Amino acid sequence: MKQTIAVLGPGSWGTALAQVLAENGHDVRIWGNNAAQIDEINTYHTNRHYLPDLTIPASIRGEKELEIAIDGADAILFVVPTKAIRSVAQEFVKKVKNKPLIIHASKGLEQETHKRISEILCEEIPVEKRRGLVVLSGPSHAEEVAVHDITTITAASEKVEEATYVQDLFMNDYFRIYTNTDVIGVEMGAALKNIIAIGAGAIHGLGFGDDAKAAIMTRGLAEISRLGVAMGADPLTFIGLSGVGDLIVTCTSVHSRNWRAGNLLGKGHNLQEVLENMGMIVEGVSTTKAAIELAHQVNVEMPITETIYSVLYEGKEIKAAAKDIMLRDGKIENEFSIK
């Protein structure tokens, strides 16, 4: 059944998801606050800053006014940076006139509050202005979805019928969706893997090989799982698409901003240079700070995250940081406990 979908956020992932929806026959509007970018989408059907090689389906309509973009939409897809989620949700509440399903495909934790994105959306959008909330997450690069590479991700909601609705919206012959009811696990996996990806990129930038990459991904997954379970997640989620799947794709690809940022850090660039070079949000940087604060709050040990934090926020020399983590006291591998 044809649905009307408003995509809030014309970055690379928002644009790629809008393309999937349009190709599935839905009426798609994409909203952003950069007037020149929206004009480009409507005039040239391109979004060159984010996906330079993509021709966007002509049926996708760019909108500069949020009220017009969301008017009568069956579902609203939030794909804005974590730091913008709350403010965009507040604007949405002022302008929405119906009761759409809320979907989000962003990955991060809010600074200061350490809240997951679904928690922020539920706080800001009252139940009388939404008919449900679904998290869309998993191993995916916008650059690959845009060229129809095979991709499989997860739609998570506490209500199976809401996740199934999103599954039906997006499923096609190159984009497969599985459903899940563990919203906490899916969101924690999505947010925390960006931290480990910075570390994996740094390992590469420092010139280490496959052994080191395997080590940081495996032990990184242990950290993600520990904190996720402490927050109420199902441990099985972390061996699924939004856990190990997303971790693999983000830690091994040049498409990953977080990996590229870490790679530059490993090559000796400082954080300011790295962020200026990227030209896009690197969610893992802010998530590292939020995760460490949250881990301390719930008494969970996260040595890799602590090490990455020391490089990003305390100016520790990256080679010394790598050496220090290797010289930690010996541990039991399958120890799944707090400090």
Question: Could you explain how this protein is built, in words?
Answer:
By secondary structure, the protein is an alpha/beta fold. It folds into two domains: 4-181, Rossmann fold (3-Layer(aba) Sandwich); 185-326, N-(1-d-carboxylethyl)-l-norvaline Dehydrogenase, domain 2 (Orthogonal Bundle). 51% of the residues lie in helices and 11% in strands. The protein has 15 helices and eight strands. It has helices spanning 12-23, 35-44, 66-70, 82-95, 117-124, 142-145, 160-170, 183-205, 210-230, 241-251, 257-266, 271-278, 283-298, 303-314, 318-326; strands spanning 4-8, 27-31, 61-63, 75-78, 101-104, 133-137, 151-156, 175-180. The protein has an eight-stranded mixed sheet with strand order 3-2-1-4-5-6-7-8, sandwiched between helices. Helix 8 crosses helix 13 and helix 11 (257-266) runs antiparallel to helix 12. The chain is globular, with a radius of gyration of 20 Å. The model has no long low-confidence stretch (mean pLDDT 95).
